[in-house]
Amino acid sequence: MLRSQPVTTALKGLVTLWLLGVVVAMFLIVPEYQGLGNTGRIIMVHVPTAWLSMLAFSVAAWQSVQYLRRRRVEHDERALAATELGLLFATLATLTGSMFAKVVWGAWWNWEPRETSILILLLIYAAYFALRSAIDDAERRRQLAAVYALFAFVTAPLLIFVVPRLYDTTLHPNCAFLPGSKCDGITLAEGRVGDLGDNILELRAIRREGDLVTAVVAVRGTGGAAPVIMEPSYNVATRTQVATPAFEGSRFMLAIQGVSDQGVRLNIQAPGNTSQRNATTTLTLLASLLGFTGLFVWIYALRSTLLSLQRRIEAQGWS
Questions:
Q1: pTM across the whole model
Q2: Which of 254, 253, 261 has the alpha carbon at shortest distance from 236?
Q3: Across the chain, what does the average pLDDT equal?
């Protein structure tokens, strides 16, 4: 134990310095996201906290299985500690996502599929603590909490990864900010209508002036508001986008990705899609994921130890 103490202290210091380095890189090295400025840097916190919530819930489920198999109290304590951290990281992911939504989509909350699913997940895991506080008998509380944690974990990947992808209408375009991701987009001919993200598009006309192709698009949100005319343009000779107007109340843009005999291919483009390909941005995001993972291990071990200490104190009859 004495020999491991210096090693543990050194690891804690390394995690602290690593996260400080990530913060410095976020603001001084990573380039700003076009059209978003410093707001785009939220992704360096939003993505790690979202993934760590899944890691924490996975640990809670595993420790719950171990408790049901062995009936050892320390497994219940570890499951409780992991669930607390999972709820904390999921809340942080929701708050950072809400701040991002305010800047990009114009509202703190939009009730789109991903936002709604994470809220449901928060409520499911909040009920875990309500269940524990409602049962006085310790053994029964631990057993029921372990069973509930397993059922709750089954819903986690469904709500985070599956359910949002069942909906075509979502404010989260697949191409937003993550390196290597893609948006499918839609190809429309004149007079045709299609869904793109959370918008309904009608291609009213295609104008050609030499190599420049301009699409006249009527964009209507799912709320039924009057359509807004947007006119993205594309140079067919250089295969480059010329005009990429922003959606009303949003900083995401409508862009033409190509022109063919079938019409024009329209897609959502994130304001930060240029800086997202920067190697520094990618490395900083990976470093942030690693640093937050180290932070999770640190806090998880500390919280588990405190719960064990609290149990021992209570067993001695101390208040």
A1: 0.72
A2: 261
A3: 83
